[in-house]
Amino acid sequence: MTVSADSKQRLLDAAETLFAERGFHATSTRQITAAAGVNLAAVNYHFGTKDGLIAAVFERFLRPVNAERLLALDALEAPDLEPDLEAIITAFVAPPFRARGARDQHVERAMRLYGRIHSAPEAHAHAIFVQQFDTVRKRFESAFARALPNLPRRELHWRMHFLIGAMAQTLADPERLCALSGGACDPYDVEATLERLVPFLTAGMRAASLPTQRAGGARKRSGNGTTRRASSRKTRSRSSRSRFTRTRRARRSS
Amino acid sequence: MTVSADSKQRLLDAAETLFAERGFHATSTRQITAAAGVNLAAVNYHFGTKDGLIAAVFERFLRPVNAERLLALDALEAPDLEPDLEAIITAFVAPPFRARGARDQHVERAMRLYGRIHSAPEAHAHAIFVQQFDTVRKRFESAFARALPNLPRRELHWRMHFLIGAMAQTLADPERLCALSGGACDPYDVEATLERLVPFLTAGMRAASLPTQRAGGARKRSGNGTTRRASSRKTRSRSSRSRFTRTRRARRSS
DNA sequence: GTACGTTTAAAACACTCGTTTGAATCGAGG
DNA sequence: CCTCGATTCAAACGAGTGTTTTAAACGTAC
Asked: What is the rounded CA–CA span in Å between residue A18 and residue A24?
């Protein structure tokens, strides 16, 4: 274990930066080794394959984020405290925003990297992420369940999905917010972002548990996704509110 | 303009399917032309370049989705109607879920394609999407502003960003929801998904405009986006509620 | 039938990718 | 000193990429 293990470190640092900037697939091993100032073969020597390097970057970056999530949740689950939904959401959402990459990279790069991990194309990178994430997921799921005792478990899954989506999008594509607001919002102001994101998500998680009506009838979902409103006779209480009626399709035939 | 323009069509169809399945970068022109049953050179002949093909797929797929969004919004903005936030959100969110790809592809593929467009790596594909999306964005922004008259415009931008994020994630990565819920949720049941997504988003959009406390003091947001809480002397009311205090970092040094 | 513009066909081009190879280099232990 | 394992280096390999080229086939108008 000579001192030159920093070759490995520099490789990880360079890869982390480039992955954040351009994505995993679009970054070549040659770019990485050049940025790290090491030989081309180093990535295969130290990590076996490029995917091994990706996994190592995942690992190194994700570990402290998830650790901080669990630490924050621990503090919220002291036995004398009653569950605080907003605090739980903050404990889950804030760490990736506040994470610094290697070599104290800018917030911007850490955010983008985390976003890219979330929207990982499809490779086994996804599997690595899931593995890293699974404990966090379980802990927060039960925390949410405690804070929202009247919410059925299935609804909770859906909402956690939405929550993760809003978070991931904000992390992955800050530029879009900038463009959307004409420059009025600064997506790299982490605290300002969290002050908006957390209340948004808290309200969403607290929304009424079932889609308004659902008066007496059973579920009665038509299994066929294509034919909408197949059960024509029981449309009374549903057609009263026309929330989900779709307008005509407009498609050109050329 | 012979009948064999269907070569172009079959190219678009095959590309749409493969792009949805594997992504844009991971799909080669050879795979596309093989699936379409046409010659390799056809893509360059008809679309100039692979990016041209991608743009054409974007165009053909996005147009009806955005058209339907605007149509639905038109119906909601009849002069005698008062703004209905939930209906506006549905008008924005539902069309991509209900879109069918070419050749009546499964909902699954259309969803994935739209999700992939949203999380387009970074190419000018993004620009194409933005161009297609800009009109929709403007229309819905003012619709939201009418439905939420007390919400400052900047907060609205943030929330639209979150909204788009939750929608895009649900479209792009239905598998994750499946895994998250242990198979309890069916992300391809479009109506069930919308019945959960829309209330979630509606509640989020309606959340209190400013982050809870803000009791007696004036707004007092530090104008500088980078240096958070630059005005150090006035930190009193902030440290009282420790909502956003971060716990210690945990990072291994190996 | 012949000529013409459009479309298809097969082959090759130039390039980048991730990975492997085999020799050179280094740093400690005998 | 020499040895040995670990690391670095330059060079090449084989496969895959998007694109171009050149010629052949097609349908239509003259």
From this structure: 8
DSSP A209-239: SS-S---SS-----S-SSSTT---TT-HHHH
Contact B166, B115 (CB under 8 A): no
pLDDT tens for B200-237 read 999 999 999 764 444 443 444 433 333 333 333 333 33
Q: Is residue A191 a contact partner of residue B246, using CB atoms and an 8 Å limit? A: no
**The pair of three-digit structure tokens given for residue B54, joined into one six-digit string:** 């991608």
Max CA pair span of chain B: 76
Of the candidates A58, A110, A69, the residue with the CA atom closest to the CA atom of residue A93: A69
What are the pLDDT digits (tens) for A182-195? Answer: 888 898 899 999 99
DSSP string, A164-210: HHHHHHHHH-HHHHHHHTTT-S-TT-HHHHHHHHHHHHHHHHTS-SS
Which of B107, B121, B244 is facing A94, going by the closest CB pair?
Answer: B244
Separation of alpha carbons A165 and A209, rounded Å:
19
**What number of other Cβ atoms are within 10 A of residue A210's Cβ?**
13
At A235, give phi and psi (nearest 5°). Answer: -85, 0
pTM here is 0.82
Helix H segments across B2-100?
A: 6-22, 29-36, 42-47, 50-76, 85-98
Instruction: Please report, for residues A7, B103, B172, the alpha-carbon distance to residue B21 in angstroms, rounded to integers and kept in the order given.
Output: 37, 15, 11
Whose tokens are 């879109």? That residue is B99
Rounded Cα distance between B98 and A7, Å, is: 51
Show which positions of strand D are touched by protein (CB under 7 A): 6-12, 16-22, 27-28
The whole-angstrom distance between B110's CA and the closest CA on chain A is: 13
pLDDT number for residue A122: 61
